[in-house]
Amino acid sequence: MILCVFLAYAAGAGAGFVMLERGSREQWRNEAAMNAQTVSSVMRGIYTALAVENDPSGQVVGVISDLPIGDETSILTTGFDPVDVLSLASAQTKHAVWLFKPDAEGKGFVSTADSEGGAAGLPVVFAGEGAPTPQKASFFVGSAVVGGEEYMVSVLPVKGLSGELHGLLVSSIGRTADLLKTRDELVRQSLFVLVAVLAVMTGLVAFLMRRLFRPVPVLIQALTRIANNDTGVVTPFQGRDDEIGRLADAIETLREAVVEREHLREAREATLQFEYMAHHDHLTGLPNRARLNKALDKAMEALSMGQQANFLMLDLDRFKQVNDTHGHAIGDALLVAVSGRLSLLLGPDDIAVRLGGDEFAVLQKVSQDAEKEARRLATRIVEALCTPFAIENLELQIGASVGIASAPVHGQTAHALLTRSDMALYASKRGGRSAYAFYSDDLLDESGRGFAVGA
Hints:
single chain, alpha+beta, six-stranded mixed sheet, 12 helices, 22% strand
C-alpha cells in the first residue's frame, strides 16, 4: 500500500516537473518576444524613420528602414552612436542587445555593435527551427552563440523598403546556462519540499494516506497553473486545519498576489494605451491635433531662445476621387501609405501629424535657414506624394498641395501659424495643386489674405 502511494505521488510530482519545464520554456519564449517589442520601441524612439512589421497578434516581427541603422549615416542623422542606442535598449530589458549584419561571404552574420560596447566582428550562430540566414531571415526566438556564450534570444530582421536584409536586431533574456541554473534551483527546492512531505507520509501512512493522496497532485497542478499565469481557478483545500490546508492557503495567497500583479500590469498598459490613443491618429499611427498643439506650444516657447520653426500644412490632391471610385478601405490604406512616406522624409526633431480626413501637417525644427529648409522639405513631400502608390494591385496617382508659414517671421503664436499656413495652402491649390506656397503679407487674394506661391 505504501508503495502504491509512493508511486502515485511520484507520478504526480513527475507530471508537475514536466509541466514546470514546459512552463519555463514557454515563459522564456514569451519574455524574449516581449524584449523584441521593447527594443523595437526604443529604436523607433531614436531612429524616427523606422517602421515595424507586426503579425496579426500585434507582435513586432521585423523592422523596416530605407537605410541601414548603426552606420555612419545614421549616426550623423540622429546624433546617436549605435552602442549608446543599444545600451538604452539594454537598460530597458536588463539584458544584452546586439546589432548584426551579413558577413562578407554571405554565409552568416557578424556583430556591428552591442550594448556592452564590445568589439565588432563577433560571429553568431543561431540554433533552432527557422534560424535566420543572410538569404532568409524572419522573426525568430531560440538560442544563439555569441562570443562563445549561448543565449536565449529574439531576432528582429532589419529590412529595406524593397525587402532587402540590412541586418538583425538581437535581444537576449540572459545566458542559457543562467536560465537553466535558475530553473534547476527551482526544481531542487520543489523536490526538497516533495521529499519532506513524502517522508512525513511514510511515517504516518495510516492517517495521512487518506488526507494526502488526492490533495498534493492537485496543489502541484495549482502551482503549475500559477507558473503559467493561469490564475482563474481558486486553490482547493483551503480552510483545512492541517498542513494541506496551510499549503493551500499559501498557494491561494500566491495566486491572489499574481492576480493583483496582473491587474496592475493591465492597468499600466491600459493607461499607456489610452495616453497613446489620446495623442495619435487611430488609422495612421501619426500624432494627432492634441499632440500637435503641445508641440506648437513648445516651439513657440523656443522662439525666445532664437529657435525658428516652419509649419507645413498638407492637403492631398485627388484623394476624394480615389475614395469615391475604390471605396473607403482603399482610401484608408492609401492614407496609411501616405503617412509612411511622409514619416521617412522627416528630420529627427520634426513631427508629422494627421489633422483629419486627407489633411496632414509637419512641424519642422529649423537648423539655419528657415526658407531654404522649408522649400527643400516641401519639394520632397510633393515629389514623394506625386509618385504613384501600389495599393492592392491598384496603381493610385494623387498629389499634395502644401502651405508654409514660418515662425517668428509669419507669426509668433500657434494660432497665427495655423491660420497663415492654411492661407498659403489655399493659394497653393489655386496655383494648380501639387505645389507649395509660402505665406506673404505682400500678396493678397480677393478676401484680403496674403500669399507667396512657389513650387
